[in-house]
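## Example record

The block below lists the input lines for one assembly entry, exactly as stored, with component labels intact.
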Amino acid sequence: MQKRFAGIDIGSRTIELVVVDESGKIVTSLQADTGFDPMTAAKALIHDVPYDRIMATGYGRNLFEISFDTQTVTEIKAHAIGARAFFPDVLALLDIGGQDSKAISLFESGKVKKFEMNDRCAAGTGKFLEIMAKTLGFDIESFGREALLAEKELSISSMCTVFAESEVTSLIAKGKNRREIARGLHTSVIKRAAGMINRVSSDGDIVFTGGVAKNPCMRHFLAETLGRTVLAPEDPQLVGAFGAALLARDIRDIM
Amino acid sequence: MSEDYREMWQSLGLDLAGHDALLGVLGGAYQDIFLSQKNRPAGMAYFDFVMSEVHGLRIRELLDEKKAGRKIIGSYCVFVPEEIVLAANATLVGLCSGADFAMSEVEKLLPRNTCALIKSSFGFKLGKVCPYLESADMIVGENTCDGKKKAYESLGHLVDNLYVMDLPQVKSDHGRALLKSEYLRFKTEVENLTGVAITPESLREAIQTVNKKRAAIHRLSALRKADPAPISGLDALLANQVFFYDNPARFTDSVNKICDELETRVAEKNGVFPAKAPRILISGCPMAVPNWKLPFVIETSGAVIVGEESCVGERGTRNLTAESGNSVSEMMDAIVDRYYQVDCAIFTPNPDRLNHIREMAAAYHADGVIHYGLQFCQPYLMESIPVEKALEEKNIPTLRIETDYSMEDMGQLKTRIEAFVEQLR
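Predicted structure tokens for the full assembly:
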């Protein structure tokens, strides 16, 4: 019987579980909302899934480590490994999740060379887009598609979630087009993300991971702004858990 | 700390309830951060004792010195020469500035976007919880960064014994001349305070006393070059912090005793972290007691700190004062020469600091450098970007951290530090 290796990525909004076989092929992938009790949600997710070894990542990794006596890896390394498994030659990646964003550059070997991370606040993260979508009456799944349909964009000057929300409210009150406001909000997130990427990596293709990478408007205008190819795996939210699972497979000396 | 200090604290005008709360937090943090470390050198027991009595026995000693006619001088900066203070029969102590306290009161006097260190110094005064400050006969402020020099204008309304020392910002003949005239002015001021004239003998003895203290720290630092590291960065930082509080001769002996023990450890390859653990050099802003946040995160992420390019560390202690002078005037020149070399980020340009970071990274076999900048500390944050660039050009991985004394960014900080440590493995 082939051995199975799991990676669990406990993020601020969602938890992903990926199980790979000895060749590194994904055999199971599951997702759940983190909710207010991440450990219960994580336990429910792994309950019926057989594996020989598990590695945790994401902001909840240390809690998981205590509950399950397992090894952990940061999201940064996990995403780097996961992204390279999908795109073996890529040297830069951008991960925008629920409450943080990271730009990472890699050596040819795949090792992390340098990274930048937003600190402290939700500006430029999935949470920002989620709150803005709600303010504009869009659901998060269609937010990017709707923004892409805008004929022009309205400029949004606030990066702070709280101030941007009141700016959006006042634009709505002025009767401005929702899609154009939505486009402006996307652009403000993209500018910030592009700045982070440019600080760690100046050229070459970029892998885009995390929940925000599912947003077509983000992918499109990120590529346009940077003048670089933006690659996204089929399910960009799995990349961290996939990377952790591959690491669980590759560590040999802990058991 | 035992109950019988309460009367002493009360007589100093401390707010006992606030002070109890502070000591409670401090004691808890000390337990979690220091006492929980594994395989600590036995000699650290001395520093544990000093820390447990930092507001108790040490204050009693200072008050006994005062009773015997000695003066106490408090300082916020490594530019205040301890040699001059000791030679005039006074004692120099560092003043508390490493924790947030009475912040709502502080923000009535200082803008929110002031660095945590300056805010803390005000918090300890406004909250009436620093027995060192309340024991001091003279408090020395110094014109280093803009934040500090403007803050002293406001501090001057809160205390009646503030003395402000001007400092140069450029290393030039004029700069050196300014430092010299300020040190001479300080010498006169201290002599007036104590009524003791500095003599060649007293100044020579003071220079030797302070040099011995620095030499003991040099010995400790050199032992940290070993792999595995014989002492944690946290414990070594603690020794560097106690440098500012303790009786100089007793401090020197205690550090030397630890070094004897560490020499045995190095010979036996007995380390506090496994051999080949990632080695980190910290560079940047000073870490005053009880600011142990960043070193704690680093050393619980599997890396060991092998040096501090910091005022509470090698920037503050690395140079000795020449002992060869015969007259007071020659020795004062030697003191000026010694302090003039301190490569604080208030100087422009400041190439010596970058050279020193590179030298330290090589000497301590650091795998990476973490640049520590306090939020809103312009001089060090400004330098952090060119420092990072210069180090990375030499293939030394560098992480810039900007933080303060609060705990709100602990999760982010942990992820960034852990990822950096993974990068070094």
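The two ends of chain B are 42 Å apart (CA to CA). The CA atoms of residues 94 and 244 of chain B lie 5 Å apart.
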